[in-house]
Design goal:
By secondary structure, the chain is mainly α. It has 42 helices and no strands. Helix 27 packs antiparallel against helix 28 and helix 38 packs across helix 42. The two termini are 59 Å apart. GO terms for molecular function: phosphatase binding.
């Protein structure tokens, strides 16, 4: 024991350092084994003081000992609070340096005070102190004033961000995590509690179940709008499926296997249902998302906003400043916490006006994210009905020019990819979340017409009448009292700003996705003409051919949008030919398509399908004229070009590499073969594939790969949980014909001219027989 503590031993300096190392080692080991020392208070005070200076503990173990001794049940916690304040000041300096120095890797040498605090049991002591009222059986419980609770929470948060492992250890304590939610009922401790919960849930191995939170419904209903917005930051972790940002990168084989093993609803799905069952929850989110905010003016507005953001870590940090303003306002006998009262606060006047904008923007980012996730969940129709009822879309339309897309636009904002969790400014995050919400709202849902105003709906009706075609049922059934107000609807406003974006702007990707979602589903001639009349096709072609855009994400989104805009629309092909009016332009367009078929194959599918339909409409003079003049249709009409696309589409994918992003290549190759089968030319195409194999000196590889892909297609799309309507709507080919064609291609009869097996010579048959074996 003498060696462990180094008490009476006349150690040399080196020996003393070794002794101190033993103390640290013992504490570290006790955390792992649960045996031996559990906190620094078990060591003699004299020893702690004697070792303090040499070990550079800065008096933390001694302060912890005093904190422990003054925080026993029934003791006066004011003394404990005074010791905690001293500790808090030491730890907060390290936390501030951590936040302002780009969040360096937490380690002992970087943050010695926080490390020492945790090593000597400080974290466990504060957890015990906070939870004591819930554990004691005594009627008279120790008085835990709000300031003491706030300081306990702040110290724990500082430990989480500065010392590796603290957050994970707290996350492992389900009792403590659920207890923290009960502290959110107190407005004075809400901010600190929310900050700590957010950090803990971010590393928790298992997603928390919201239904386990005591009186969750009452808790949420007790929140004011500011608290509810911050609560959305926490909710975003509990309702999102893990790795949702990289969804396209997961292979379909892996995802199918996971779905088979997890047949029951996931925790995220259960949590979504729990939220939807809270009375008034969605209505309040809609109000938060659409409430107005004072507008800042001046040429330096954006720079001022960005300067503030450089040191604001997140919305909760900003809230700390806003809370100061609120408290000062309350001291001035201003009871209300709405915008007008905050504006009268003396401190509020000392805060830059732009902070108020950032504050509201950060709130809206969190709210829109939660609404977007709910829109993509299993309860989508229920959420859609509520968002329409509570006029979310008209509310966002009213905010579009003044807040969402103000005339102040950053000329050098960061161009980034698709990951919604990217580290970017509040302005950029807000715009992306807004566009993702529009995409989710419009995608394959009849409520998409709420993005228009009454005049624009009338325009759609007029287009249908002029073309002598019936109006789309969803348009007829649209409740006009729920559509956008004003001179322009939300979709039209989006088109306007879309045309102003720089060529490689990351916003272009999300803008194109949002507009494309409006067109997806059963093809609507009126919807297409509405957008064509506003110059969308020419804008897309400019971006693809003339703008010099090199972003693959942006180009893919524009190819997909162009495909939806032109599909089966003879007027669109006529406009295309008018814009692409030179061989050089057409060659540039083809080069862009061929540079990545994974990105452009949906457009290729559109051209093939449209050509097939137009060729059956030769009694129409306009169709015949466009067929003879359009360079794009003429190009695709040549069988050698269709075969070239087919070869590449089959060759760039295999079962192991299929993802949600590239499975469209398989479906596009199937469309080409289905149309060939309709014209009794399927054997010609299969034989051409065989000849291609031999010409390239890899007999059997292409056809065996395609055979395996089709076997996977059957397992994937014939699953009872799969929705086949997307394939049917996008192609106007009945799903029964899809299934029938795949079955014919996979036929085992080697005498059938429509079976792949007939075109693979026996020595090369089934090279990859085991690819799909379980």
């Amino acid at each position: 024991m003498a060696t462990l503590l180094g008490s009476e031993s006349p150690c040399t300096g080196g020996k003393r350092r070794h002794c101190n190392g033993n103390v640290v080692t013992k504490f570290t080991a006790s955390k792992i084994t649960g045996q031996g020392f559990s906190r620094g208070t078990q060591l003699p005070g004299g020893l702690l003081q004697e070792r303090d200076k040499r070990a550079k503990w800065h008096g933390i173990p001694t302060l912890l000992q005093r904190l422990y001794e003054s925080s026993h049940p029934n003791s006066d916690l004011s003394h404990a609070h005074s010791f905690l304040k001293v500790l808090s000041s030491q730890l907060s300096m390290e936390a501030m340096s951590f936040v302002t120095e780009d969040r360096k890797t937490a380690q002992e040498s970087t943050f010695p005070n926080t490390y020492t605090f945790d090593l000597f049991g400080g974290v466990n002591l504060l957890v015990e102190l906070l939870m004591r009222p819930t554990l004691t059986m005594q009627k008279k419980k120790a008085n835990m004033n709000d300031d003491l609770v706030k300081d306990c929470l702040s110290v724990l948060y500082n430990c989480c961000i500065c010392t590796e492992g603290v957050t994970k250890s707290l996350a492992a304590r389900d009792d403590f995590v659920l207890f923290l939610f009960t502290l959110m009922t107190n407005k004075k401790t809400f901010l600190q509690t929310a900050t700590l919960i957010e950090d803990i849930l971010g590393v928790k191995k298992e997603m928390i179940q919201l239904e386990g939170i005591p009186n969750l419904s009452g808790l949420v209903q007790s929140f004011d709008q500011q608290q509810l917005a911050n609560f959305c930051r926490i909710l975003s972790v509990t309702i999102s499926e893990p790795d949702v940002g990289n969804d396209d990168k997961h292979t379909l084989l892996a995802k199918n296997a996971q779905q088979k093993s997890n047949a029951s609803p996931s925790r995220a799905e259960v949590n979504q249902v729990t939220l939807l069952n809270i009375p008034g929850f969605i209505e309040r989110l809609c109000k938060l998302a659409t409430r107005k905010v004072s507008e800042a003016t001046g040429a330096n507005f954006l720079q001022e906003l960005e300067d503030w953001y450089t040191w604001l870590d997140n919305a909760l940090v900003l809230d700390a400043l806003m809370q100061m303003a609120t408290e000062e306002a309350e001291q001035s006998s201003t009871e209300s916490s709405d915008e007008s009262s905050l504006a009268t606060s003396p401190l509020r006047h000392r805060l830059p006006q732009s902070m108020k904008i950032v504050h509201e923007i950060m709130y809206k980012v969190e709210v829109l994210y939660v609404l977007c996730v709910l829109l993509m969940g299993r309860q989508r129709n229920q959420v859609h009905k509520m968002l329409a009822e509570f006029r979310l879309i008209p509310g966002l339309n009213n905010l579009f020019d003044k807040l969402i897309w103000r005339k102040y636009t950053a000329s050098n904002h960061v161009v980034h990819g698709q990951n919604e969790n990217c580290d970017c400014s509040p302005e950029i995050s807000f715009k992306i979340q807004f566009l993702r919400l529009l995409q989710s709202f419009s995608d394959h849902h009849e409520n998409k017409y709420l993005l228009l105003n009454s005049q624009e709906l009338n325009e759609l009706s007029a287009i249908s009448m002029k073309a002598n075609i019936p109006e789309v049922e969803a348009l007829v059934n649209t409740d006009r009292s729920l559509v956008c107000d004003g001179k322009k609807g939300l979709l039209t406003r989006l088109l306007t700003v879309m045309k102003r974006e720089p060529p490689d702007s990351s916003f272009r990707f999300w803008q194109a996705r949002a507009v494309e979602s409006f067109l997806r589903g059963a093809t609507s001639y009126a919807d297409q003409m509405f957008l064509l009349k506003r110059g969308l096709l020419e804008h897309i072609l400019f971006c693809i051919i003339d703008s010099g855009c090199t972003s693959r994400d942006v180009l893919q989104s524009y190819f997909d949008l162009l495909g939806e805009l032109m599909k089966f629309n003879i007027d669109a092909f006529k406009r295309f030919n008018k814009y692409v009016n030179t061989p050089e332009k057409f060659q540039t367009f083809l080069t862009q398509i061929n540079s990545s078929l994974v990105d452009s194959n949906m457009l290729v599918r559109c051209i093939v399908l449209s050509l097939d339909r137009f060729e059956s409409q030769t009694e129409d003079v306009k169709v015949v004229e466009v067929l003879s003049e359009c360079c794009l249709l003429s190009y695709m009409a040549r069988v050698e070009n269709r075969l070239a696309f087919l070869f590449r589409l089959i060759n760039i994918i295999n079962v192991q590499t299929l993802t949600q992003e590239n499975v469209s290549c398989l479906n596009t190759s199937l469309v080409i073969l289905m149309l060939a089968r309709r014209k009794a030319k399927l054997p010609f195409y299969l034989n051409a594939l065989r000849e291609k194999e031999y010409a390239e000196k890899y007999p059997g590889c292409l056809l065996n790969n395609f055979h395996n892909l089709l076997r996977f297609w059957q397992r994937h799309y014939l699953n009872k949980d799969k929705d086949s309507t997307c394939l049917e709507n996008s192609s106007c080919i009945p799903f029964s014909y899809w299934k029938e064609t795949v079955s014919v291609l996979l036929g085992s009869d080697r005498t059938s001219l429509c079976a792949i097996a007939s075109y693979i010579d026996e020595p090369y048959m089934d090279l990859d027989r085991d690819l799909l074996e379980d």
